[in-house]
Design goal:
Length: 197
């Protein structure tokens, strides 16, 4: 009887704490969405109040390196979905492999984003302009979230290599999944409003 109160039904080896952890994850994701929503609010207010917005020809820049970098981040979203699928199928090798591909894609995205920022600051988009301030604020804060995601993925990969996750105990993998998908979706939206519109 005592053991039944500790072990949740139908999930060997998992405890009631996983429900609390999932609630915390959901609460964290909602808070992050509100944070990014505030950035979008800043974008709307400043754009509506500005006499001029983007430097001429800026949207054409999106068709080069930034578009390729977007594709890398979107691909990383598919990789982490495949990692989640692997843990549900009790495939630890697949889990680690897909998580590593997600991590490599995230590092590549962050590195290219840094190079792109450096190029834009030097040549075409001064941070002192209203659009420059908004662009670097939104893209930079998103980049910090990518770096945070890279650290999270690194931790989850180490735990996965140690065999800490299985079908019924995958809270770390789920946290990485939800967080990373949020990062991907936010950048798809930000890319559209910063580069295209």
């Amino acid at each position: 009887m005592v053991g039944e109160s500790v072990v949740s039904k139908g999930a060997p080896g998992s405890t009631d704490d996983s429900g609390n952890a999932r609630f915390a994850i959901n609460l964290f994701i909602v808070a992050e969405i509100m944070f990014f929503g505030a950035l979008v609010g800043m974008y709307i207010v400043l754009r509506l109040g500005a006499k001029t917005w983007k430097p001429e020809g800026f949207s054409e820049l999106a068709m080069g390196l930034p578009l390729g970098n977007l594709a890398v981040l979107v691909l990383s979203g598919f990789f982490i979905l495949l990692a989640s699928r692997s843990i549900r199928r009790e495939d630890p090798i697949g889990l680690v492999s897909w998580l590593c591909l997600t991590l490599v894609s995230g590092v590549a995205f962050a590195g290219v984003q840094f190079l792109e920022f450096s190029r834009l600051i030097e040549q075409q988009l001064p941070a002192q302009s209203i659009f420059g301030t908004v662009f670097y604020s939104m893209a930079g804060l998103h980049g910090l979230h990518v770096v945070g995601g890279v650290f999270l993925l690194s931790y989850v990969i180490i735990q996965a290599i140690r065999g800490k996750y299985h079908q019924h105990r995958r809270i770390g993998v789920d946290l990485a999944l939800y967080y990373w998908l949020m990062v991907v979706l936010v950048w798809v939206f930000f890319f559209g409003i910063l580069y295209i519109l």
